[in-house]
Amino acid sequence: MSKECYYVTTPIYYVNAEPHIGHTYTTVIADVLKKYHQIKGEKTFFLTGTDEHGLKIEQAAQKTGKTPQEFCDEIAAKYKNVWQKLGIDYDNFIRTTDPKHEECVKIILQKLYDKGYIYKNKYEGLYCVGCEKYFTEDDLTDGLCPDHKIKPELLAEENYFFKLSAFQEKLLKLIESDEILILPDFRKNEVLGKLRLGLEDISISRSQLKWGIKLPFDETQVAYVWVDALINYLSGIGFNNNEKLFNEIWPADMQLLAKDILWFHCVIWPAMLLAIELPLPKSLFVHGYFTVNDQKISKTLGNVIDPVALSEEFGGDVIRYFMLREATFGLDYDFSIDAIKRRLNTDLANDLGNLLNRSVSMAGKYFDGKIVNTRRAVPLTLDEEVSLTAAAVKKDYIEFMDKLALRQALESIWKLVVRLNRYVEETAPWKLSKEGNNERLAIVMYNLIEGLRHIAVLLYPIMPQTAQNIWQQIGLNDNVKNQNLNNLTWGQLQETTVAKGDPLFKKSE
Ligand code: MSP
């Protein structure tokens, strides 16, 4: 039996530093996917949260003089604040210091232990605290971690190990056959290439760290932060305390992440699930990085862009639009404020804002805002063409959204925006009014408002507030989020009275 609920996740973010546009990008996409599946009439569950254990967090807390828990509480609240500003509607915000999560990690580690997948061994290696992982000499660039540009520490410990090597063949088959679908294709090949070289067992505990979850079978050690963190995808949907919910939601339909954590998600995570005999995630999408001046964004490099400041300056919806419209999902994108302004001034203020503004203004001027579907009137070729454009746009949009071609999905909506703006020029309502051709004028006004209704529904997942604003200005009083995309067809709108509001967007100099 297949489950009905669409389950989308983001990585849980480290609280050693504040949220930046990179974290925002992943979370916005997860929210867009949730909303898209909602307007397709599906049940959805969207999980995000924060990763709060480990040496890196312990050290960051120490620097501020706060206890690790106080420190985590503060940063987790900052994440929640950013998500609120960006209209992110998660169903659960999981924190790894949540006692329910801690209990879940213990249950799963015990299961792995009981099934014989965990054993004790000595370990010595070069550890990068920034990455919270061990490196080999070959992985380093001039002796430094390639991401954090710092020298890893030599750690020697007696640890517990997970028998990752036992899963090489199974994982190869599952990934090759797309049973675990890794997107885009080049990331799948990257994983397969590395997987074919062989798998080594991994250390899954730390003996000297305090800030972590104690192993259920040896309280002198704590769980490796990555094992702890990956389990959030299960604990966050009730694995150990709400079986009904868990069975409705698991397995994940879409797990989002960037290329930095590919291996953990595409190899270690499915291996853990195979070991405890749970179904595997259906797909993982590995997106690129937002960079600043072609550099990775990091606190160490001092090039962090604050999403709160951005959303205060431009508005959350504009940031959402910009991210999806500019970056090709899967590839790196170099961030620039100029690009936000360009998109705001042209696509948003000129094209969309203007279309709404002139349509509701004319409807107000010519018909006191009243719009009626006059079925009697024979539509002209031009009207038919507009309605056909709307149908084609909806079809393309669905195809693009389904394959996560998010930029192209937005481009398809803009085909309708541009077509409708041209329709205004072609039909010249002001001339029709002068000629007293009210019958034709009414049809033109109807088509504009009906077009805007289509745009609002299609745009909702990406720009929820803007879509609702359009919805209200074209006189529809319910909530655009309750619309069903499958039923969206031209001519459904019977009558409405438009209610002109403020411009959708303010241009930026
Ligand atoms: N805590 C781990 C994840 C554990 S998930 C079980 C972690 N945290 S992180 O704070 O470093 O977040 C990494 C994720 O944040 C990336 O995979 C990506 O989703 C997002 N991004 C962080 N920086 C990014 C960019 N510069 N650009 C795009 N996304 C980025 O790793």
Question: What are the SSEs and their pairings?
Answer:
Blueprint: E1 5-9, E2 13-14, H1 21-39, E3 43-51, H2 55-64, H3 68-85, E4 92-95, H4 99-114, E5 118-128, E6 133-135, E7 153-162, H5 168-176, E8 181-183, H6 185-196, E9 202-203, E10 205-206, E11 214-215, E12 218-223, H7 225-230, H8 232-235, H9 243-249, E13 254-258, H10 262-275, E14 283-287, E15 290-292, E16 295-296, H11 307-314, H12 316-326, E17 333-334, H13 337-367, E18 370-372, H14 381-402, H15 406-427, H16 429-435, H17 438-459, H18 464-473, E19 495-497
Helix pairs in contact: 2-3, 5-6, 11-12, 12-13, 12-15, 13-15, 13-17, 14-15, 14-17, 15-17, 16-17, 17-18
The structure holds 5'-O-[(L-methionyl)-sulphamoyl]adenosine.
What key attributes describe this structure?
Isoleucyl-tRNA Synthetase, Domain 1; 19 strands; 2 domains; single chain; binds 5'-O-[(L-methionyl)-sulphamoyl]adenosine; 509 residues; 18 helices; 4-stranded antiparallel β-sheet; 7-stranded parallel β-sheet
Written description of the protein model:
This protein is an alpha/beta fold. The protein has two domains: about 5-335, Rossmann fold (3-Layer(aba) Sandwich); about 335-495, Isoleucyl-tRNA Synthetase, Domain 1 (Orthogonal Bundle), CATH 1.10.730. It has helices spanning about 20-40, 55-65, 70-85, 100-115, 170-175, 185-195, 225-230, 230-235, 245-250, 260-275, 305-315, 315-325, 335-365, 380-400, 405-425, 430-435, 440-460, 465-475, and strands spanning about 5-10, 15, 45-50, 90-95, 120-130, 135, 155-160, 180-185, 200-205, 205, 215, 220-225, 255-260, 285, 290, 295, 335, 370, 495. The strands form five sheets. Strands 1, 2, 3, 4, 8, 13 and 14 form a seven-stranded parallel beta sheet that branches. The mean pLDDT is about 95. The structure holds 5'-O-[(L-methionyl)-sulphamoyl]adenosine. 5'-O-[(L-methionyl)-sulphamoyl]adenosine binds near residues 23, 26, 51 and 261. 5'-O-[(L-methionyl)-sulphamoyl]adenosine (MSP) binds near residues 13, 14, 51, 230 and 290.
